[in-house]
TrEMBL record:
The keyword NAD applies. Binds 1 FAD per subunit. It comes from the Bacteria. GO terms for molecular function: dihydrolipoyl dehydrogenase (NADH) activity. Residues 5-334 form the FAD/NAD(P)-binding domain. Its main location: cytoplasm. Coiled coil: none annotated. This is Dihydrolipoyl dehydrogenase. Its EC number is 1.8.1.4. Keywords: Cytoplasm, Disulfide bond, FAD, Flavoprotein, NAD, Oxidoreductase, Redox-active center. Residues 353-462 form the Pyridine nucleotide-disulphide oxidoreductase dimerisation domain. The lineage of its organism: Bacteria, Pseudomonadati, Pseudomonadota, Gammaproteobacteria, Pseudomonadales. It holds the Pfam family Pyr_redox_2. Homodimer. It comes from Geopseudomonas aromaticivorans.
Amino acid sequence: MTQKYDVVVIGGGPGGYVAAIRAAQLGLKTACIEKYKGKEGKVVLGGTCLNVGCIPSKALLDSSWKYHEAKESFGVHGIEVKGVSMDVPAMVERKASIVKNLNTGVAGLFKANGVTLVEGHGKLLAGKQVEVTAEDGSVQVLEATHVIIASGSKPIDIPPAPADHDIIVDSTGALEFQSVPKKLGVIGAGVIGLELGSVWARLGAEVTVLEAQDKFLSAVDEQIAKEALKLLTKQGLDIRLNARVTGSEVKKKQVTVHFTDAAGEQQLTFDKLIVAVGRRPVTQDVLAADSGVTLDERGFIFVDDQCATSVPGVYAIGDVVRGPMLAHKASEEGVMVAERIAGHKAQVNYDLIPSVIYTHPEIASVGKTEQQLKAEGVAINVGTFPFAASGRAMAANDTHGLVKVIADANTDRVLGVHVIGPAAAELVQQGAIGMEFGTSAEDLGMMVFSHPTLSEALHEAALAVNGHAIHVANRKKR
C-alpha cells in the first residue's frame, strides 16, 4: 500500500531536516528520506555539513588552534608550558563524538516533531510520487502532495588528481588523518582548502596550496582578501596562485603533483594531497526522466525565488539550487518552503546571506564588496577600524585584521560589512541584523556598544564611514 504524506523531503541535511521539522510543526504529515550512514553503519541525519563538513572541520580547527596557542602564544600571557604535544587520533575521536551527539540530537527532533524518517535512496517520479530504494534493494513508493528535493552536493573530482582515499583525498578524507603529514598539498584556495590546510599547518605540516585562479579569494572584498593572504602566508601556508595542476602520480606512499604557473612547468612531492576545488549538486538518479523537473546547464535544479521547480508542488533547496552552497542558506530555504506550503508568505533575503571562512583570523562578510558597488556605479563611503587599536583584542593577544563598513554615500545605508579578525563571524552577524532593518552607518554609530569588546570595532568602523571615529585617526575628506 502506498504511504501518503503532505510533504516528502528527499535528503536529511541542513536544508532537508530543517524543512521536514518546520513542515511538521505547521501540522503537515511529513516524511524525510535519507541514506547516509555514519561510522556505526546506521543511517544518520545532518548531511555533509554535520557529518563531514562544517561541524567536524570546526572541531579540528578549534583543537588545532588551541594546540598552536599553547605552543606559540601562552608565553605572552606569562604561562610557561613545556613539551606540548598533539594526540591526533584523540583530536579526531573528539570530532567524531561531537558529530555523534548532534546526529542523536537531530534524530530526537524528528521524534519530538513527528517527522517520519524513511531510510533509503529517494527518487522523484512523475505525479509527485517518490520511490525509495532501501539498502537491501526493496522498493517502496511514497505519495506526496508536496515534495522538497534537498539532496545536497559532493566534492568535485579532477582528472589530474583522482582521489585514492589514502594519499589523495577529498575534504572528507582530510578530516580523518591519524597523523600529521610532513608535507601536505592542497589543490584549491577556497574555503575548504584554506580551513583544512590551516588545521594541518598548525599541527606542523608543511602546507602548499595550489590555486588555479590568479586572484586570491576572488569573491571576498579585495582589501580583506589582501590582508588574509598576508596573514595566512605569515602563518606558514605557501599559497601559489595561477597554479594549474596538470597531473599527479602516487609512488611509495607519496604523490608528485605536476602544475604550471608563471615560472612554467613545476612539480612538488607530498605525503598527502587534499583536492578541494569545489562541490557539485547531487542530482544524478534523484529525478526520473518523466519527473518534469528541469536542470540548468550546470546540473542545478532550476527554481524561482521561492525555490519552486517547474513542477507545481515540487520544490528544491540548498546545494542543488542556485546561490551559495551554505548550510544556513539551505536551512532558511527549507523553512521558507515549508511555510509557503502551509500558506504563509515567507521569503529568504538573498542579499543578506553571511559567509564565513573559519581560518584564524576568521574572514566573514555580508552584503556587497567595495568592488561590486563600484562596478555598479554606486557612490560609497567606507569606514575601517583595525583590531590593533582594540583594547579587548590586545587583552586577548589577537590583534590581526580589521572591520570594514561600506555605506551608500547619498543615503548612508549600510551596503556591506566585511571583517577579518577575531570573532569575525559574530561581528558580521551584528552587521547583518542591522542591515536587515535598513540601518545607516549613523544608526550603528549612535548605538551604545559595551566596553571593552570586539564589537566596538564594528562601532568605530561605522563611525569612520562619516569621519567620526574616536579611537583611530579619520581619513581626511578630499
